């Protein structure tokens, strides 16, 4: 089978922010997973655990969404500044009713970003907070000159303002963020964004409005109709559950059947239809695609691991997550003209994580290696196939060009059949610079603290360039990436 790649033509840029992450005050996502405090025996820099930060630096996290999620609409930022001993201890009512001691707050978040080299994406509390509280938070973070909040920030040890790139106005306000109707949310959004201070006129803060849950097209229609001119990014949330059944059966992260494997792939692929349809509605009110679609929560969601707190959303991560992740990222690339940011949920110890920790121990998940592999596509130009229908069954594709290199990534989610294919080009590359693979022999292969290297990024030897074509054999359950020059 030969598929043809249009490599002389370049499509839109695949924004690096599609590789964004999300960390919420949820379970061990922040506490233990990222932040252990300066006095911890776990090696840390200013409280951030060194092993996790070093691992994340390798995948160049471009942006980190914080503090939630649902937690965001209960968060009062003033409780998380100043001397730690004085910070208010509250109850995290969304996630397990555990004590939140607010020891990780605004200063700690920006310290983490600084260590990671990532941009800020903060989600404001509009569900239970006020306009003034939001405006003062932004003043605290971004006001360079003299002002009450700027002086408070300086009194707390930070002279210069921080750079706040992205700002979400509410989270899931159709549900846990206030159970609002779209008409009402549109007005609330218009009001809050009016009072968002913009001190840096050259780099205005990018405003993200709460978009739809999954296929709630009415939400998109109503909010776009009423507020599009005030919105920069419109968020979409969609999680991959094998059954789509939130109440009775999210399914296990490991130990599933072949049918469940394929159901999970089908559910992941639904992202394409969701983006297409929401984007069509957005086109009605924003034909020039000024407003971006921001998929700021996505990933797999399974039952929690046995014996763990149900409110902590801790799940294993397998080769199945690599395949659903590749399907999803390939879809984001395909829609690169509209999708400009995405944030997988969540970076450490929660849902489809990059990293799992257990006290002092940590491991990189299979999904981490997918993000590592796909770095080549960050800020690269999309390269399309001539005819998508030429792809073999159960195979998805993406490709991009950057710095005179062409990277083609293919995912074969067939559990039984390897796929042999040839790729023909408009312009023939001269050599394979690098080829990598993530694969496994069993459907739920995963990494453990005792065996952290079961599923990793490896060199791929199944690709060759001959007779004007790239020849490849894709093993079962694999993602392969080949970079050509
Ligand atoms: O990511 C976990 C939760 O999923 C988030 O807090 C919420 O926004 C979504 O429902």
Automatic annotation (TrEMBL):
Q: Which UniProt keywords apply?
A: Carbohydrate metabolism, Glycosidase, Hydrolase
**Keyword presence, Hydrolase:** yes
Which Pfam families does its entry note? Answer: Alpha-L-AF_C, ASD1_dom
**InterPro entries named in the record:** Alpha-L-AF_C, ASD1_cat, GH, Glyco_hydro_b
Name the species this protein comes from. Answer: Weissella bombi
Q: Where is the signal peptide?
A: none
Quote the pathway field. Answer: Glycan metabolism
Q: What is its EC number?
A: 3.2.1.55
Q: Which GO terms describe its biological process?
A: L-arabinose metabolic process; polysaccharide catabolic process
Which GO-annotated molecular functions does the record name?
A: alpha-L-arabinofuranosidase activity
Q: Family membership, please give it.
A: Belongs to the glycosyl hydrolase 51 family.
By what name is this protein known? non-reducing end alpha-L-arabinofuranosidase
Quaternary structure and partners: Homohexamer; trimer of dimers.
Domain Alpha-L-arabinofuranosidase C-terminal: from-to ranges = 296-478
- Is Hydrolase tagged as a keyword? yes
Q: Which reaction does it catalyse?
A: Hydrolysis of terminal non-reducing alpha-L-arabinofuranoside residues in alpha-L-arabinosides
| Gene3D superfamilies the UniProt entry points to | Glycosidases (3.20.20.80), Golgi alpha-mannosidase II (2.60.40.1180)
């Amino acid at each position: 089978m030969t598929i043809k790649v249009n490599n002389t033509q370049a499509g839109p840029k695949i924004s690096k922010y599609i590789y964004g992450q999300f960390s919420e005050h949820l379970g061990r996502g922040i506490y233990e997973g990222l932040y252990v405090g300066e006095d911890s025996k776990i090696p840390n820099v200013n409280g951030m655990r060194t092993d996790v930060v070093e691992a994340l630096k390798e995948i160049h996290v471009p942006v980190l969404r914080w503090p939630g999620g649902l937690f965001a609409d209960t968060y009062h930022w003033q409780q998380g500044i100043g001397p730690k001993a004085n910070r208010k201890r509250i109850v995290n009512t969304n996630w397990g009713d555990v004590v939140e001691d607010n020891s990780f707050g605004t200063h700690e978040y920006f310290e983490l970003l600084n260590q990671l080299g990532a941009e800020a994406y903060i989600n404001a509390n509009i569900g239970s907070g006020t306009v003034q509280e939001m405006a003062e938070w932004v003043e605290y973070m971004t006001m360079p000159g003299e002002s009450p909040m700027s002086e408070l920030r300086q009194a707390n040890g930070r002279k210069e303002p921080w750079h706040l790139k992205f700002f979400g106005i509410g989270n899931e306000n159709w549900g846990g963020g206030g159970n609002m109707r779209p008409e009402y949310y549109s007005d609330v959004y218009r009001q809050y964004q009016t009072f968002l201070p913009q001190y840096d006129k050259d780099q205005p803060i990018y405003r993200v409005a709460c978009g739809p849950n999954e296929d709630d097209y009415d939400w998109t229609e109503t909010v776009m109709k009423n507020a599009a001119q005030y919105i920069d990014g419109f968020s979409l949330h969609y999680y991959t559950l094998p059954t789509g059944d939130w109440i009775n059966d999210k399914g296990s992260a490991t130990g599933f059947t072949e049918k469940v494997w394929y159901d999970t792939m089908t559910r992941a692929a639904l992202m394409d239809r969701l983006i297409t349809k929401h984007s069509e509605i957005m086109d009605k009110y924003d034909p020039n695609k000024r407003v971006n679609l921001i998929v700021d929560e996505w990933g797999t969601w399974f039952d929690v691991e046995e014996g763990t707190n149900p409110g902590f959303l801790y799940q294993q991560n397998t080769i199945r997550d690599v395949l659903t992740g590749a399907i999803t990222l390939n879809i984001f690339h395909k829609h690169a003209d509209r999708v400009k940011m995405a944030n997988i949920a969540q970076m450490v110890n929660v849902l489809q994580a990059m990293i799992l920790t257990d006290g002092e121990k940590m491991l990189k998940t299979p999904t981490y290696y997918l993000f590592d592999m796909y770095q080549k596509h960050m800020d690269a130009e999309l390269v399309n196939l001539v005819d998508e229908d030429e792809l073999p069954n159960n195979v998805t594709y993406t490709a991009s060009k950057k710095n005179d290199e062409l990277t083609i990534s293919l995912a074969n989610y067939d559990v039984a059949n390897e796929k042999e294919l040839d790729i023909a080009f408009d312009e023939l590359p001269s050599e394979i610079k690098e080829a990598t693979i993530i694969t496994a022999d069993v459907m739920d292969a995963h990494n453990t603290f005792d065996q952290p290297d079961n599923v990793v990024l490896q060199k791929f030897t199944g690709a060759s360039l001959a007779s004007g074509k790239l020849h490849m054999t894709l093993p079962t359950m694999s993602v392969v990436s080949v970079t050509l020059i």
